[in-house]
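User: I'm putting together a teaching handout on how sequence relates to shape, and I'd like one worked example. Could you take Adenine DNA glycosylase from Methylomonas koyamae, show the sequence you're using, and then write out its predicted structure as tokens right after it?

Assistant: Happy to. First the sequence, then the structure tokens directly below it.
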Amino acid sequence: MAPDQFQRQLLAWFDRHGRKDLPWQRDISPYRVWVSEIMLQQTQVASAIGYFERFMSRFPSVQSLASAELDEVLQYWAGLGYYARARNLHKTAQIVAAGGGEFPQTLAGMCALPGIGRSTAGAILSIACGQSQPILDGNVKRVLARYHAVTGWPGETRVAERLWQIATAYTPPLRTAAYTQAMMDLGATLCTRSKPLCEICPVAAGCQARQQGLVRQLPEAKPRKALPVKQSYWLLLQDSERRILLEKRPPTGIWGGLWSLPEFEDIAAAGDWCRRLGCIVQAPQVLPAGRHTFSHYHLDYTPLLAELENPINNVMEAGRAVWYKAADFALLGLPAPVKRLLLQHYPEDFYDENG
């Protein structure tokens, strides 16, 4: 099927069946499209809606986001994961606000901003600015890999280059915003990873994967390899007022900028740390271990619950460690497994004061 025929059939389907009531499809602007695209990189649409609406309510403009403290931005991002995205949102907002509040109108200018890659830049420019720019997010990769029976994992350079060539050739000069949304909708609702609905796909007649019986094999998955496992001990240090000591993590790296529990290689290291700070603690209680999986490794963590016997009310480690009550947990940017652990052990305090 020629590109123009593909476009006509896809757009006709979108006009009748496409999603047009998502929150980021209202009051369209580069800012709103940008935030939604960053959220949707690792989050399903249904889950992203609530986060987007809360984020927009608090940060309705690029200027409001730029002027906010990073801690607050991370708080509104908590639970979405991949926190470098939130840090890059904040950096980019400050850059754009400092330049007058307008986003670049070129692909190169957009890609120069922190956290914005070629596909995200294309989505912003096509949806919010009406430019004819291709995109290649996960949904579009799946549609094009099947439609042209492109073998190989899309993360490989050779395969990615081929898919970009196809995406560029198939992106129309007009109605690009609708076409871009239509491609994302097709991948999200019909050309899904499992159980694709080929029988009602508007472009099924030209799909080479369907003709060759390869729909379920394409796109090919990333070659699997065993993820390494890292061990960690988390210290739940509680004082006489049932406050918990939390540390602010470094601005970069895993969970950068979030508040977390002090982390150690073993129990002895946790004890040494307490003694250096002048803390007198009871022998820690070893709580059930848990696992949190990142994209590149498993983190097995063992919580250690310890009671502080001497009063220490000062802020420690030059502001990196602070005592917090359970009622404050919801106001902090916390990694998801840390928040679950804290609420598991302090549910009454949390819900009594937060409703």
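A couple of points you could highlight for students: The longest helix spans residues 3-17. The two ends are 57 Å apart (CA to CA).
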